[in-house]
From TrEMBL:
GO terms for molecular function: ATP binding; ATP hydrolysis activity. The lineage of its organism: Bacteria, Pseudomonadati, Pseudomonadota, Alphaproteobacteria, Hyphomicrobiales. It is found in: Cell inner membrane. This is Peptide/nickel transport system ATP-binding protein. GO terms for cellular component: plasma membrane. PANTHER family: DIPEPTIDE TRANSPORT ATP-BINDING PROTEIN DPPD (PTHR43297:SF2), OLIGOPEPTIDE TRANSPORT ATP-BINDING PROTEIN APPD (PTHR43297). Keywords: ATP-binding, Cell membrane, Membrane, Nucleotide-binding, Transport. Residues 8-257 form the ABC transporter domain. InterPro entries: AAA+_ATPase, ABC_Ni/Peptide_Import, ABC_transporter-like_ATP-bd, P-loop_NTPase.
């Protein structure tokens, strides 16, 4: 891959545990993101969210983060000032979280929040045009009655609506990198498909890089170009999404075997075997 958008080398994230012990949550992760859809799968607690939050620069203050390299669009993120990192988050890198509660401002009406995101990108746009753009993007994420939703506060939205509003707020800024952490978990399949379509369009039309974190191996293999498989704080496998069946790591093979076949016989699903040795460093 020439000129990757993101390069991460040997990222480690640790927390102080009880009695002065250190808990290593991410244990030396390296990957690149191009102008593509990169999926990250892996069991709960394997370090998917932490790794992507490190890239965004939004880890909790007590996290101990080290890396040999971490760059975005040629910018050395390890050397970047907090101010530059904030600026990058404001307009060039976006993140969609599973829970909209943490991304939306609870005391600001939905329309005003999206309008603010648009104005950040283009301060010269007249008010009426900004309003039109907000309504258009709400419609694009299939919010019914966008005029009404414009004036609602985040707590007045359902979970699925909140998620779509957050997606609208992110895509409207057309970031160069979008990290989507379980972005569609609260959506109906039809709405999910439309939201994926919007993200896909940004990747194809604008050359955005998308990091798509999900537990849904089926979805990831259909939607993404490449897939990283994480297990216990490490990337154990990187696969071409169309060649998931060629996975060799026992954890990935286990995941694949657990996928129910829609037209298959109703046999009990195998349970996922785990072994402590998978989490150990490989030579
Ligand atoms: N603030 C924190 N303090 C201490 N440990 C943490 C903190 N945040 C995360 N961890 C630990 O780091 C590990 C990785 O967490 P992370 O959120 O990255 O998992 P994940 O792969 O995103 O899981 P999930 O699929 O459930 O979202 C977990 O074991 C978690 O307990
Ligand atoms: Mg997570």
């Amino acid at each position: 891959m020439s000129d990757p958008l993101v390069t991460v080398k040997n990222l480690r994230i640790a927390f102080a545990g009880e009695g002065g012990a250190t808990i290593e949550a991410v244990k030396g992760v390296s990957f690149e993101v191009g102008r593509e859809k990169l999926g990250i799968v892996g069991e709960s607690g394997s370090g998917k969210s932490l790794s992507s939050r490190a890239l965004m620069g939004v880890l909790p203050g007590h996290a101990d983060v080290t890396a040999d390299a971490m760059s975005f669009a040629g910018i050395d993120l390890l050397a970047a000032s907090p101010r530059l990192r904030r600026q990058l988050r404001g307009n060039r890198m976006g993140m969609i979280l599973q829970d909209p509660k943490f991304s939306l401002n609870p005391v600001m009406r939905v329309g005003a929040q999206i309008a603010e995101a648009i104005r950040l990108g283009d301060r010269s746009l007249p008010r009426a045009k900004v309003r039109r753009k907000v309504l258009d993007v709400l419609e694009a994420v299939h919010i019914r009655g966008p005029e009404r939703v414009y004036d609602l506060y985040p707590h007045e939205l359902s979970g699925g609506m909140g998620q779509r509003v957050m997606i609208a707020m992110m895509v409207v800024r057309e970031p160069e990198l979008l990290i989507a952490d379980e972005p569609t978990s609260a959506l109906d399949v039809t709405v999910q498909a439309q939201v994926l379509e919007i993200m896909d369009e940004l990747v194809k039309r604008r050359g955005m890089g998308l990091v798509f974190i999900s537990h849904d191996l089926n979805l990831v293999s259909r939607f993404c170009d490449r897939v990283l498989v994480m297990y216990a704080g490490r990337i154990v496998e990187t696969l071409d999404a169309r060649r998931m069946h060629e996975a060799v790591h026992p954890y990935t093979r286990g995941l694949l075997a657990c996928l129910p076949a829609i037209d298959g016989p109703l046999t009990p699903l195998p349970t996922l075997a785990r072994e402590a040795s998978w989490g150990e460093a490989r030579p």
